[in-house]
Amino acid sequence: MEFRCFLFTxxxxxxxxxxxxxxxxSSLILPLKAQQISPxxxxxxxxxxxxxxxxVSLTVSLSVGSPPQQVTMVLDTGSELSWLHCNKTPxxxxxxxxxxxYRPIPCSSPTCTAKTRDFTIPVSxxxxxxxxxxxxxxxxxxxxxxxxxxxxxxxGSNSNSLxxxxxFGCMDSSSTTTxxxxxxxxxxxxLNRGALSFVSxxxxxxxxxxxxxxxxxxxxxxxxxxxxxxxxLNYTPMxxxxxxxxxxxxxxxxxxxxxxxxxxxxxxxPKSVYEPDHTGAxxxxxxxxxxxxFLLGSAYTALRSEFLRQTRGVLRPYEDPxxxxxxxxxxxxxxxxxRAGLPPLPSVNLMFRGVEMSVSGEKxxxxxxxxxxxxxxxxxxxxGNSDLLGVEAYVIGHHHQQDMWxxxxxxxxxxxxxxxxxxxxxxxxxxxx
Length: 433
Prior knowledge:
The chain is mainly β. The chain folds into two domains: 8-222, Cathepsin D, subunit A, domain 1, CATH 2.40.70; 234-428, Cathepsin D, subunit A, domain 1. It has six helices and 29 strands. It has helices spanning 110-114, 179-182, 198-202, 297-310, 386-389, 422-428; strands at 8-18, 25-36, 56-64, 69-76, 83-85, 103-104, 121-125, 131-136, 142-153, 162-175, 187-190, 206-210, 219-222, 234-237, 254-255, 257-262, 265-266, 283-286, 293-295, 316-317, 332-336, 348-352, 355-359, 365-373, 376-381, 383-385, 393-396, 404-409, 414-419. The chain has a six-stranded mixed barrel. The longest helix has 14 residues, at 297-310. The two termini are 36 Å apart. 43% of the residues are buried.
């Protein structure tokens, strides 16, 4: 079943930029939107990349080119190359022909010949001898066009936010499962650890974000989060892979999942279930470009069974074997719409090396937009089966990162987080609510 109900939630993110050669910093407020899109009906197994976008995108507005053009880009920690639609429609594309700072990258450039290891499909040379790229995603969407360099401005009035000669993709064609929603965004901003990612080219050793669960303002920060009111973060090391493997994304934010606990019950699975195999399949990625959390089949089946057991008599399962929300979430419930809130639910704790991530309360269930049965709404468990997506990885989506301060520390190769009211963080930083 395909859903055409769209939710637009306005968030405000604060970006902090610290100049690499000075100790001074300046704060910048950026509008960010949580935009729900309809999911694809069929998702094939990707050739060798595990990062993917699914259902909801977080978007941020930037200025690009000379003179500056306003663009809206999806914020994605699971992607490397940032890209823009070029000349797609007047309202949703970047026009390189009117920018004096736009520079296409020729095939002979080292950027074209030496930085191709992280592209899904190797670059090629077009008829004009320009570097041609194709990026494909596991949701069946793809974009193609030319590599180029351009000036990106996070805030036009602040020199610290200016990045000249930023390499990006100027895409002139695309294939997408959601063309109507895709047209609302100008492109994608890649934030993984690859050499061509936005954060790598900007030269920041850390960045953080805090997504509000209430729909009020949140925070995006480039640089160190040195706030006296921010509680100490708990860190888990990133998993490093020295040799290339076909199903392991070496520039993703990969951490090691070691177990899952439902309330006080640890799922009876060996740790090897959570570890990448000899092909690299089975890595655990923290991905802002994915909404929910997806587990490999054996772990998902065990979690589903235990959550069902612990909610027996508390929640009423929606018994329709033909209904699978977003193609991967087959545990759903009927909940009376006139009740004040959800009943008490067992928490689900994701156990990583040295730290846990607790998912509880309303983050465990998601109401299917526009769907009801009598006086009941349909609410689905916010963990899905990645096997049904054809993705051989554990993916921690941004829904389960709400009201957490999330830090990606590239300098120390670790990811950290702490529970935090993101709306309060915005208040302390003086952001409008």
